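Thread: "does anyone have the structure for this chain?"

Original post by V.I.:
We have the sequence but no experimental structure in hand. Need at least a predicted one for the grant figures.
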Amino acid sequence: PAAPARWWRAADLADTRMTAFLQARVRQRMVELGGAAAGFAPTVAVKLVSCVPRRLRAPDILREHFRGRDGAALPEFLKYESRAVVLFQKLDGCDVMVFSMYVHEFPTAAGGPSAGRVYVAYLDSVEYFRPRTARTEVYHELLVAYLDWSRGRGFDAAHIWACPPQRGNNFIFWCHPQHQRTPSRERLTEWYRAMVARATATGAVRRVATLYDECFAAWDTTRRRHKPQHAQRPAVWVDNADADEGAPAPRLPVCPPVFDGDYWPEECGRLGGLIERRRGLFGGNHALRSQTEGAPEHQLEGLVLSLKAQPAAYPFNRPVDPEALGLKDYRTVCPHPMDLGTVATQLQAKRYATPDRVVADVRLVFRNASRYNPPGHPVHEAARTLLAHFERKLDQLLERLVSTGAAEAPDA
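Reply from O.Q.:
Generated one for you, tokens below.
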């Protein structure tokens, strides 16, 4: 008779000091909740499924217009560790992954504007946790425990951006139960606020603020959202930002924290490009004006980087490894492999002769994925969604370039 299939178990994954700490806190919280939750406490397990050193390239516009806290230029790359923490629950004899989060840890020794900070990049869950009434409390406790663990390791601050996925898009899990609702921005914000309130009550968090109040409010002369405390506590990036007496130019402001996929650096690049295009229309020199004829390439680079930051783009950001994945026929089906990471690297190294080649390579990434994976497969569907997103953004970019004379309209 054939040997029985071996099922992977959460217990097969190694424990770490961090996961032991988080698991103990989650189980303790379930016992505190009492009732059915207490009975299910032994069924949960917290595991670390990946810990990968990564580098985040600081956008050129930030390196040009901001400085480090010590007055030095921003480093080209910011080093951090990407960790994936998951919560399993044993249900009907099977270990089910019900919650997952990706966190990025920027050690103090690495330097840069994000040093000593952690960034909660992605959260995702499926509605299978039992008992359902304890689900929110348990997920909150896992986050609170991680913040407490990070504080104990010496990190100074944690950052969370509340951004719900669009319908049909997923952050970590490739699919969700059809009955599981996608939270609205308001609902997700309230969910985070309740978690932060719990973290403050337990002592894991000492002070809560927004990135705007911390880093931008003191410079904002248009929205008039200055608060009384700003007079006593200036934004962290404003120190010595005014010009020294007799200096030929004002000093650059200190750069706010920068994280992979975060909103404000991308918005800064978008606004910089908008200013550059306007100056191109009306003439004159400007600090943000391109010094080369490569403005379309710069904007294509921004489009590719924003595409890489999409949650569903994770499978397309690195080259496919057929040997590691056991895809024996991959090179036959896809003789010209390509990935978004390679496109971005070649763009930054100025290895593309024309913008058309950039567009062709991006399309090749998703066409390879759609060709190899059948319709209905998560990778196939993600490729279709991202290709449509890219084509839409590309059309908008072309319209802007044509309107400013930076490109010619395509033939009908």
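V.I.: this helps a lot. The two ends are 66 Å apart (CA to CA).
O.Q.: and The chain has 14 helices and five strands.
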